[in-house]
Amino acid sequence: MSYPAAPFLLGIILGPMADNNLRRALILSNGDPSPFFMRPLSLIFVAAILLLALSQLNAFGRLRRMLIHDEFKE
User: Fold this and answer.
1) How far apart, in Å, are the Cα atoms of 52 and each of 13, 25, 46, 56, 74?
2) pTM score, whole prediction
3) Are 73 and 67 in contact (CB under 8 A)?
4) pLDDT band at residue 29 under the 50/70/90 scheme
5) Closest by alpha carbon to 51, among 43, 11, 5?
6) How many CA within 13 A on the CB side of residue 20?
7) Rounded to an integer, what distance in angstroms lies between the CA atom of residue 26 and that of residue 31?
8) Which of 8, 51, 57, 70 could cross-link to 3 by cystine, CB 3.0-4.6 Å?
């Protein structure tokens, strides 16, 4: 398996840091993940992550192409 060097290195370096900070935040909130979704900025980030993940699926891409194609018909 050949991975690009930059994302691999970022994952190796930032992965443990993200894991430690996630654990720390969950300990401070007594295991409740709702503080991650209470602020408007965090909701924007969650929505962006979901859109990016969904954009990788073929069904979402076809739907997007259909919507774009319909917009240009008018």
Assistant:
1) 22, 25, 10, 7, 28
2) 0.55
3) no
4) very high
5) 43
6) 5
7) 5
8) 8
